[in-house]
Specification:
about 475 residues, alpha+beta, five-stranded mixed beta sheet, binds zinc ion
């Protein structure tokens, strides 16, 4: 293994994170320069032991410095039973240590953390600071040697970690044996380049537990309803970052915050938007697949029901399962705010991109032209005057869970049509199937319905049995990672 950066992280786990000159000699010099350049490796005290390279036995001996020649100049020797006194190149005694304090500091900068950086356990544990990520504030810690035998001492000594409501543990290369908290290996999620240390924040955001659904609902804003109000009387219009609710004579706009959605990537918000897009009912599941259900999607629907009932204290259930179809239907009326210009109907399939995200959701992006007016402020009257209008290209995106699209079971297993979609995305838009393949034909029909397009999103070349997608297909799915 000559990858010095990887070895650097592994070495950070050890009691003495040091590299000898003999080791460094066999590693790529550019990686050594990189680590030295960033200060992550710094020169340490010279070695007091050296391995004999005179006799072939490979024995290690204590170095003695002997005066030889010019007064005051000392030369290192080691004793060898076979050869006698063996002089050692002073260069071979140089050592480089991983600077863990500086590593902690750089991680803090890269992560954009706030709050104090503090050393909780010298050489082992640093409290790096905190930031908002995936729905809540999280405290970040760097823990070295979390897999060592004495690791229990870390958890006993560092109450900060135990007491933190949502700790995120960063380890150089080895995760703790028992994992009470999410732990991330820096060797896997960081890169060290000329520019510095970079870190895959999305990966952390995707992997930390998203417990925001379970947040106490008592601070959710609510809407005044009469005793006899029914869900059917309520109309919800979904905007870009808010909803507009109307019930009889009452109207009110709610921001994402009012509704306790954590942001545009909040799963419950995305579910509500999907209901808006599909006019209140999610598409039926394409093929029913039996098997044990993980029921996580059902749980999301149930959480959304609960949130809606808190905001709109109306009797009965706002969302019902559609029997036998694997779909859900809202009892209230729901739609998208067309003023927001969404969903954008693409003019051509070529203006669409379907992207498989790392967590398995599908992002649908549409390019379109948007008319805008450039305005200037009149110097004298201070009034805004339209001076110019133009067109510019915009891209709007929405993200969907495969289950919401009716393309996966409750447990998240893609149906046959879902598999067609994934095959297109993972193969850059080309798949080999028969021209009368039922799943491809059904998928094509479903895609047209989603996007409100009459034209064909797919092309078929009979003599090659090749289906090609007119829209752009992409994936950023990670290869399965060893854990
Ligand atoms: Zn020897």
């Amino acid at each position: 293994m000559t990858d010095l950066v990887r070895r650097f992280w592994l070495r950070c786990e050890e009691t003495e994170p040091l590299f000898s000159a003999d080791e460094i000699r066999w590693t790529p010099p550019e990686q050594f320069d990189l680590l030295r350049g960033h200060g992550l490796l710094r020169e340490a005290a010279r070695a007091t032991w050296a391995v004999c390279d005179a006799c072939g036995e490979g024995h290690a001996e204590e170095v003695v410095w002997i005066s030889r020649g010019a007064p005051g100049s000392l030369t290192p020797f080691i004793p060898c039973p076979a050869v006698g006194g063996v002089p050692i190149e002073p260069e071979r005694l140089r050592r480089w240590a991983a600077d863990l304090d500086l590593t902690a500091l750089k991680l803090r900068e890269t992560l954009g953390l706030i709050g104090g950086l503090s050393l909780l356990f010298p050489g082992r544990v640093w409290s790096l600071g905190r930031r908002h990520l995936a729905g809540r504030f999280r405290d970040f810690f760097l823990v070295c040697g979390a897999a060592r035998e004495d690791a229990h001492a870390i958890w006993e000594r560092c109450r900060h970690i135990v007491d933190a409501p949502s700790p995120v543990i960063l380890v150089p290369a080895r995760s703790p044996q028992q994992k009470p908290w999410p732990a991330f290996r820096l060797a896997d999620i960081t890169a060290i380049t000329e520019g510095g240390l970079t870190l895959d924040m999305d990966y952390i955001a995707d992997a930390v537990p998203r417990d925001s659904y379970a947040m106490p609902a008592k601070t959710v804003a609510s809407f005044p309803v009469g005793d006899d109000a029914r869900w059917e009387d309520l109309r919800i219009t979904i905007g870009e970052g808010s909803i507009f609710a109307e019930l009889r004579n009452e109207q009110r706009e709610f921001s994402l915050d009012d509704l306790q959605f954590t942001g545009s990537d909040d799963r419950l918000w995305q579910l509500l938007r999907a209901f808006g897009r599909f006019g209140g009912e999610t598409p039926a599941r394409s093929t029913s697949v039996s098997g044990k259900d993980a029921a996580t999607f059902r749980k999301q629907v149930s959480d959304l029901r609960q949130r809606l009932t808190t905001v709109f204290p109306i009797a009965g259930e706002p969302i019902r399962a559609v029997h036998g179809k694997g779909a859900y239907r809202c009892l209230f009326q729901i739609g998208l705010d067309r003023r927001d210009g969404f969903p954008v109907r693409p003019e051509r399939w070529e203006d669409c991109q379907l992207l498989e995200l790392r967590d398995g959701r599908i992002q649908i992006s549409v390019k379109s032209k948007e008319v805008f007016a450039a305005r200037s402020r009149d110097e004298e009257s201070q009034r805004l005057t339209a001076i110019d209008a133009g067109e510019r290209e915009t891209v709007r995106s929405e993200e969907y869970d495969l289950r919401i699209l009716g393309l996966a079971t409750e447990a998240g297993i893609p149906t046959a049509e879902g598999a067609v979609l994934l095959e297109f995305l993972r193969s850059g838009g080309k798949i080999y199937r028969r021209g009368d393949d039922k799943d491809v034909l059904r998928f094509r029909q479903r895609l047209r319905a989603w996007m409100g397009m009459d034209s064909d999103p797919l092309q078929f070349i009979p003599n090659r049995r090749l289906w090609t997608a007119k829209f752009e297909c992409a994936t950023v799915r990670r290869q399965a990672e060893p854990e």
